[in-house]
Amino acid sequence: MNLIKKLWRALRRPSVHYSLGFLTVGGFIAGIIFWGGFNTALEYTNTEQFCTSCHEMRNNVFEELKPTIHYTNRSGVRASCPDCHVPHNWTDKIARKMQASKEVWGKLFGTIDTREKFQAHRRELAENEWRRLKANDSLECRNCHNFDSMDFTLQASRAAKQHSTALATGEKTCIDCHKGIAHELPDMTGVKGWH
User: Fold this and answer.
1) Domain-located, residue 113
2) Exposure b/e, 159-192, CB count within 10 A at least 16 = b
3) Is this structure's pTM higher than 0.90?
4) CA 30 to chain centre
5) Residue 103 pLDDT more than 60?
6) 133 domain residue, yes or no
């Protein structure tokens, strides 16, 4: 207790040994180091290598992604986990990382540590992600896909009609029609309007 009181007194009074300029420059340098470390950690957690480092993701959803057009296609452009699940804007990215920190509990407490447990929670996990994408107007999809850049004449007639209607009305977003585009759908038995 005595140590805490001494430390508090030292923090409250002006520095005896260091100048204000030294403390300001030192604080500035410490801030740069902290910010650099923070951004480095943030960018590392935005890699496919990080996302697939736990077997729950590597052995389940990542394996499902591999045969899709988002992973392998004629153009060689490939979407990785963060492209679809983490917004690119910094503030949206931070908000998503805070949400994702809750998902770490599933790893730590073994909620989804086996294929069977993962499948048991799959619909809940998918619905959470669909709800998030619906709420942000499929922001991550729109980082690569943009209605204004689409050539409807090169699309199948049904797709062209759906896309042009969605563009004109603004009522639907990508995830409304494209559930299961990159991952297997959960059991949708009993969901109203699902065919």
Assistant:
1) yes
2) eeebbeebeeeeebbbbeeebeebbeebeeeeee
3) no
4) 29
5) yes
6) yes
